[in-house]
Amino acid sequence: MTLKLRRLSNALGAEVCDIDLTKPMSESTFGEIYSAFLQHGILLFRNQNISREQHIEFSSRFGELDKHESLPRDRHPDYPELLMVTNKPNPDGTPSESRYTGRSWHTDFSYTTNPALGSLLRCHQLPEVGGDTLFANMYMAYDTLSDGMKKLIADLHGIHLSGTRKINVADKGNERRTEVMKLNPPIAQPVVRVHPETGRKAIYLGEKVKRFDGMTEEESKPLIDYLNKHATQPEFIYRQMWRENDLLVWDNRCTLHQALGDFDETQIRHLERTTVKGTPSGYVVANG
Ligand code: SIN
To answer: What distance in angstroms lies between residue 103's CA and the mean position of ligand 1's atoms?
Structure first.
């Protein structure tokens, strides 16, 4: 089978048309999907009315799935492979702890020594308008730097912190935040990461990084701010405007993403994510 692909933006992403994930899929078709994933960084499958089991089963073709030990409170109670990204209140009426997940530029689990290969996010319920997600192409971000800047950042390591999301001042989610930070000590990751499968260099940074290893925050901030601004400029972006039953997979090794708060938060936005484990990367920083 030759996949029918439709590009999503100039920078990255493709929609895979004419695939029904409720049906069995051959190894060779999955091989084409995986090649397209490596080439485009993001693949979108629309109209996939799949069960949670099918979401997990399809995801596990990309690799071993994370059981989300680093975010234990956000797991689905019956499926540890599914991470809830939802503002649906808890059964006891308290606010969902994952309602602000992903609200800053990041790549999944960069604050662990097993950062994610990919993530597969499925849209269950949406507000009337908005609730979009931005993605940015980190190969482009690296390739468009000057030779001087490439040399300057070649050996730098950024220290990735958990629990740095932008929160509403009214959010009293401190207990979760403290727990997540205790479970996940600061991890230094290379600022320029070589993609383990394509061999291409990509910027690996985002807003979870406040300083470079061996440097102070004050010294690091101007360069971190420059790199993040450069890396997330409109030319490198795809904006996902969700529809119910969309399934989107992204390559965390060469993209950044950010969930937007561009919606009425009294309306439900409910998505569920699987996370595919990547190859080990980074090291623990004692005084992060
Ligand atoms: C995430 O960062 O995994 C969540 C993205 C989103 O909610 O759009």
So the answer is: 8
